[in-house]
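User: two proteins, same treatment. go.

Assistant:
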Amino acid sequence: MLAAVAVLAVVALVLELVLVRPGWVESEEEDQARTEAVRAAERFAVQVNNFDSADVGTLKQSLTPLLTTKFNDDFESTVDDLLSQVAQAKLTSRGEVIRSAVASVDRDSAEVLVVADATADSIYGKRARHFRWSVDLVKVDGDWLVDNFSPVA
């Protein structure tokens, strides 16, 4: 009888290792991917909303490492005009992420929804800004990088 119980215990252990553990490891990897993708999207939202017209070059330098090559090319084509407007308006912005959530994630791509608030101060006065973005990320060489972002209504 004791031998039968021991055999059943060994069979149960083998079944757990074969059937349950791979799903557990996969789930743990997915949780880690979610966490890393959210951090990358939040870091992007904070960087994009924190700048000072007195040092507009810092904004460009801080964002570039967060972007894919493709998105950085798009960013480079428009950023100089944007930074010129920021400098002319003497615009300073301070922002923070209010909430974020993963809309979808797999091993090498993710969509993260981010809600952020910012306070902007310029020659035109002070105003609060509210953003809701969908941030598309891809994993490049182990890092989650922003591949696009768009407003969410």
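Protein 2:
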Amino acid sequence: MKSKIKRVTSIVMMGMVGMVMAVAEDGQSNAALDKEIVSLKQRLDAMEAKLAAVASRPIDKDLIESSKESSLKKGRVFSTFDVELYGYICGEASYDSNSTDDCNQPSFVSPHTGNNTSHFNATAKETRIGVNITGPQIWEGKLSAKLEVDFYKDSTSQGSVPLRMRDAYLKWEKETLAVIVGQKVGSLMAPIGPDSLNFNGLSNQGAKGATHAQIRVTKDFVIEKDKKVETGISLNRPGNSAGGSPHLQALVGYKSKLLCDRDNYIALSGVAGKDRAEVEPNAEEPHQRYARKYSVWAGVLSAIVPINDWLALSGDVYVGQNLGLYSGSLGQRYNNDNANPHSLRTIGGWGQAAIKFTKKLTWNTGIGIDKIKSRDVASYNSNVDGQYMDKNWGLFTNLIYNLTDCIELGVEYSVMETHYKSHGLCRNHRLQTSVSFDF
């Protein structure tokens, strides 16, 4: 530190001496110059003494550490890790020509009774809030977390609704390997879905999926540029399942470019597990109570096929049984009729065409169906207005317009038909509008 002070002092002295000599060349006398040089030396000596005093003071380490901590904390609001807030606010209005199972997100038409009436509804339940959390590096991989909620939890009030957890999971990634632990919306089985304004999409009308607590492992294999194979396996605990063991899901998919510069995708996926029903005492066995187990399984073929830059086709087909836990089998888990218990053998699927007129305007049209083998279905089911269903289908068409990068407008017409073994066919026409603001 002292050597630096001396160098600075020498440079300053040389500069001042040079200035004085330049002045001397203009005609100053030698006596005046000598006097000026003496004065400058005195000033420099005083400056050097002050600088030396400052350099000899002890360093305040606590002050330095405090400054570092303040600098590191700058910009942190929620956590010691990077947190990204996202979501959207969505308002919807709809009109139904008939009664449905849910006025906000219908999947079935109610049986025709004296109470079947048209109705208008408005809601903001689809509003969604989430956070993405970037965690530390661990085991040579990247750790992250996600938490997301909406307001679609069951509630008797339309104006005051509770939060519903959608996603709450940890994710560890290393290159093309990923592990997810927690609850996640969607399943490995049937990885794609239709673009309907109805929050349920074509749920119980051909589209599969549910929110599950799960452990999921996925691995991608890159074959060459624009071509890769996706694989995954997961253990799931479906809601309301009483099977006593997790359900196993698996997926194998292939992604590539074929007809245009957009990705084609084809996947084969499925689920296997058990569900259990309690058999209540009845006339034949008045003093006996026991559990009856049913096999749950499905195989699903899914595909996305872009035809060109503005047209894409997508959909899936499936076969399985007892899929009420996965928005299949028309929401029915099994036929637990004491006199004639049955598994519910089911087939179905959905398809969609998406036309992108401009960067801002898209037209989607889709159709889907769920069909249970009729002889597997009993005549009555206490869970669905006293009736059993054996077929349910729906069709929708909508226009979605991006007014800005964050504001989206939509309008949709849909029709759905539900067939009951005792009441026959019931139909509903629905008109729905929505506006959402992304943030």
